Structure to design on (637 residues):
């Protein structure tokens, strides 16, 4: 009998625990299930800086955990150094921890702040296509705005301008890699999802760029940025499968096989062959190797512009192509014979020449049709213009990038094998329109484009 | 003319020159002091923000730098004097034309960075000779080393923007608000 009543009570208590406990949590707010950190530091920081660290160790333990394991913490750089701004800064606001004091902070940190300690890196970065040029499409180019809001954003099918749905694709797509222009609300905080943004992001203090794209906050790791995955977060997919090409190449093969054993932490300009057995993206495009020193200008060691419709040797704002080739040759010679290097670059130059021939012929056909009024106004309903887009923007880039970084599957199957077929389809449509003097009634091609 | 006359003339000449030089030199020094500069009412906000800032007397009871220590070039004497004459004339004319109001400055700073206004690196370096000195925080090491090696063209004020006059934009906005309030009360 006593045993029975004992069971009853146990059952009742268990019942209460199971069904009431969640109610209690819901009333109090769920506890932070990650360990709540008590972090007390005495060394090397001002009183204000310590307050930030101690409060955020409790409020946002993930951030402080990341920070304390990174080089910033070792160098004594804390929240305060990067996030505190003068009251008159366009980005100045106050978190609850500093409300009522004369300390103003900003969640946004632009490269201008990074440049205080890393001036050379930021200066080089600003000369590269990762800076202003990266966000130019999203911020400056009319054509891109039509794509983001009118087409992808659905204005063309009746979603009214200003509806949040129209900017959804910018916020989830374009801006994430390219960056955007931060717009501020009356409280100096970013609005309309205009922050954070990708590598060419524009800040209210005039800074352009986002260092944390490759050196993610709040660890800011050099090893992370040296790994190909840092670049692969944007340089992937049907239009520029650079990470896929790399994985396919011999360089990538050795990275995938042996990369875990490599020394990823050597000091800048001292990371040399031997620390690794094959290069990553960073090794060739940025790192100090042999006689070359480090650069944050990723376009500095390039000869060709391989992303636009027709490939030309880089000049002006896009760099100095001839010099770029010389620099890249010096990179290669650290591990390859001059014969190997010359053979590779000859192959790339010929691939570019072949691709340019395709594109010039197609451009000629299009200008003939345009002169005769045989192109549709809406190019996304016009098969010949759509095919042209996929020709250069997708298959054309795949062929060129595949050749440049030794990914044969991309140079061939995803590249020229599709280029010649698209060319033939374009030719057929061209011949039809020229012969009949009119545009065919139905599109003979799928509009999703070849992969 | 007798010999005695020439000697006397020389002595008098040297003495007069000496006195003139000393007076000029002392004027050059005294007109670079904060007391002199702030005798024009346009300088009120600049004086107050300097006084409260790290180079002024308020923080440790000692003046660390006067106006001309920062706002004139210290690379050579001739350049210093020419600049002093030029800026002095400029400020005098601006004073006569009634410029230098808070509105003027706030408008001016919309297009220009306020902190770099005629503050010379050579002025900073007169006192701050050793940058990577004993006792600096570790974090300052990296930034100053790039500067010392000549890897960057950025200068002291690029980073240390508020050492002269604190957050001078905010101070100027507050002064403007005060003046407007005083006007409406009248």
């Amino acid at each position: 009998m006593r045993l029975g009543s004992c069971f009853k009570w146990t059952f009742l208590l268990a019942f209460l625990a199971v069904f009431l406990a969640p109610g209690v949590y819901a009333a109090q707010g769920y506890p932070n299930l990650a360990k709540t950190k008590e972090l007390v530091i005495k060394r090397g920081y001002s009183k204000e800086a310590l307050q930030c660290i101690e409060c955020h160790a409790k409020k946002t333990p993930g951030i402080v955990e990341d920070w304390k394991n990174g080089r910033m913490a070792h160098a004594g750089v804390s929240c305060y150094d990067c996030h505190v701004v003068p009251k008159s800064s366009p980005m100045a606001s106050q978190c609850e921890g500093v409300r009522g004091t004369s300390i103003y902070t900003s969640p946004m940190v632009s490269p201008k702040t990074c440049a205080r300690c890393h001036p050379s890196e930021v200066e080089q970065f600003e000369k590269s296509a990762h800076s202003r040029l990266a966000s130019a499409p999203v911020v400056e180019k009319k054509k891109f705005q039509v794509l983001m809001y009118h087409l992808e954003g659905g204005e063309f099918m009746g979603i009214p301008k200003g509806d949040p749905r129209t900017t959804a694709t910018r916020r989830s797509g374009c801006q994430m890699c390219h960056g955007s222009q931060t717009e501020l609300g009356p409280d100096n905080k970013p609005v309309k999802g205009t922050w954070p943004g990708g590598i060419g992001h524009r800040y209210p203090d005039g800074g352009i760029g986002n260092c944390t794209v490759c050196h993610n906050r709040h660890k800011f790791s050099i090893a992370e940025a040296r790994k190909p995955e840092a670049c692969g977060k944007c340089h992937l997919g049907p239009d520029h499968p650079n990470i896929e090409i790399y994985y396919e190449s011999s360089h990538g093969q050795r990275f995938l096989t042996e990369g875990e054993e490599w020394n990823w932490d050597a000091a800048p300009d001292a990371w040399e062959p031997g620390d690794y057995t094959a290069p990553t993206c960073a090794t060739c495009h940025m790192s100090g190797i042999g006689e070359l020193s480090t650069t944050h200008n990723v376009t500095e060691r390039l000869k060709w512009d391989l992303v636009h419709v027709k490939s030309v040797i880089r000049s002006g704002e896009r760099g100095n192509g001839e010099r770029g080739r010389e620099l890249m040759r010096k990179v290669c010679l650290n591990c390859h014979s001059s014969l190997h290097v010359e053979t590779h670059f000859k192959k790339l130059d010929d691939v570019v020449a072949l691709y340019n021939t395709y594109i010039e012929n197609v451009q000629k056909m299009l200008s003939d049709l345009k002169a005769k009024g045989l192109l549709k106004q809406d190019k996304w309903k016009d098969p010949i213009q759509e095919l042209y887009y996929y020709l250069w923007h997708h298959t054309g880039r795949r062929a060129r990038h595949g050749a440049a970084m030794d990914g044969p599957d991309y140079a061939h199957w995803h590249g020229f094998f599709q280029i010649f077929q698209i060319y033939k389809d374009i030719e057929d449509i061209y011949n039809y329109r020229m012969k009949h003097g009119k545009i065919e009634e139905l599109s003979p091609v799928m509009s999703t484009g070849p992969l | 003319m007798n010999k005695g006359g020439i000697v006397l003339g020389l002595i008098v000449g040297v003495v007069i020159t000496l006195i003139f030089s000393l007076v000029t030199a002392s004027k050059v020094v005294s007109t670079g002091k904060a007391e002199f500069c702030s005798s024009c009412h346009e300088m009120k906000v600049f004086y107050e923000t300097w006084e409260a800032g790290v180079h002024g007397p308020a923080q440790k009871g000692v003046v660390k730098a006067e106006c001309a220590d920062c706002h004139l070039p210290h690379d050579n004497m001739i350049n210093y004097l020419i600049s002093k004459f030029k800026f002095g004339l400029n400020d005098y004319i601006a004073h006569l034309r009634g410029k230098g109001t808070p509105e003027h400055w706030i408008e001016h700073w919309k297009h220009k960075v306020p902190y770099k206004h005629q503050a010379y690196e050579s002025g900073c370096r007169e006192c701050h000779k050793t940058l990577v000195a004993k006792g600096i925080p570790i974090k300052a090491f990296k930034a100053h080393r790039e500067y010392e090696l000549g890897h960057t063209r950025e200068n002291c004020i690029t980073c240390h923007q508020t050492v002269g006059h604190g957050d001078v934009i905010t101070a100027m906005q507050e002064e403007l608000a005060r003046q407007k309030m005083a006007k409406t009360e009248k």
About this structure: Chain A is about 50% helix and 0% strand. The longest strand of chain A covers residues 84-85. Chain A has five domains: 1-30, 32-107, 119-213, 251-333, 339-436.
